[in-house]
Amino acid sequence: MHAMNWQLPRLAPGDDFPPVSQALPALSPFPGLLAAGGRLDADTLERAYRRGIFPWFSPGEPVLWWSTDPRMVLRPAQLRVTRSLRQSARRFMRNPDVQLRIDSAFSQVMQQCGAQRAATGTWITEEMLRAYTDLHRRGLAHSFELWEGSRLRAGLYGVCIGRMFYGESMFTTVADGSKTLLMALCGLCLREGIEMIDCQQQTDYLAQMGATPIARADFLQHVEQTTSLPAVQSWQYDRDTFLTDCARWL
């Protein structure tokens, strides 16, 4: 990120966020940037996600808070599963050494996501790791994991409040590992009545997987409706659950 030459709202610890309508517009140098500063902890993160706001900043920068418009989202039923991904997922399921798990190594997944992006710069700082790990301890952040024996081969993590899932990052060391986990996430979402996964920002990769941009106003309306719903009770996962959840794609 570059230096900023305009007056950005500066938050003290505990300050409320400004209205998301004050975020920089789509055609600005930093579309969706809303505020800087404040405290990065589990309480602040929960408040932010309930209002469609997320943190994203590089090491050495203040905490930067964003609310993009349009917002990139993936509706689980619209996940695009290619023939090669279907073959990869089946191959994983035939391998007796492969296990699918949820929440068995949340911090490790976050660390691996950061490590895989270290060469190009990562926003997964130690501060972020601590805050999201605390959110995980509250049952509001979750990791999907692909293991081969004792080795973590792929992972993704995100935040889930009520029936709203916010995707954060993913990594893989094997072909289609993270895509298979995205399939698992979408299958769980369809089973649990989660109709939308927040992808935050538009990328070609996400578009190829079926994500589409929607107006922030529509996104925020959905967030308001779904974060007040009862939380998902079970985050247990295994091969049989995957095969059931993802039968439509396999």
Secondary structure elements and their pairing?
Blueprint: E1 10-11, E2 33-37, H1 42-50, E3 54-55, E4 64-66, E5 71-74, H2 83-94, E6 98-102, H3 106-116, H4 126-137, E7 141-148, E8 151-161, E9 164-172, H5 177-192, E10 197-200, H6 204-208, E11 212-214, H7 216-226, H8 239-245
Parallel strand pairs: 1-2, 9-10
Antiparallel strand pairs: 2-4, 3-4, 5-10, 5-11, 6-7, 7-8, 8-9
Features:
250 residues, alpha+beta, Alpha-Beta Plaits, Aminopeptidase, seven-stranded mixed β-sheet, four-stranded mixed β-sheet, 8 helices, 11 strands, 33% helix, 22% strand, globular
Briefly summarize what is shown.
The protein is an alpha+beta fold and 250 residues long. The protein contains 8 helices and 11 strands.
Structural summary, described in words:
This protein has 250 residues and is of the alpha+beta class. It folds into 2 domains: 10-69, Leucyl/phenylalanyl-tRNA-protein transferase, N-terminal domain (Alpha-Beta Plaits); 72-245, 3-Layer(aba) Sandwich (Aminopeptidase). 33% of the residues lie in helices and 22% in strands. The chain contains 8 helices and 11 strands. The chain has helices spanning 42-50, 83-94, 106-116, 126-137, 177-192, 204-208, 216-226, 239-245, and strands at 10-11, 33-37, 54-55, 64-66, 71-74, 98-102, 141-148, 151-161, 164-172, 197-200, 212-214. The strands form 2 sheets. It has a 7-stranded mixed β-sheet, sandwiched between helices. A hairpin with a 2-residue loop joins strand 7 and strand 8. Helix 1 (42-50) crosses helix 4 and helix 3 (106-116) runs antiparallel to helix 4. The radius of gyration is 18 Å and the shape is globular. The chain starts with 9 loop residues before the first strand and ends in a 5-residue tail after the last helix. The mean pLDDT is 93.
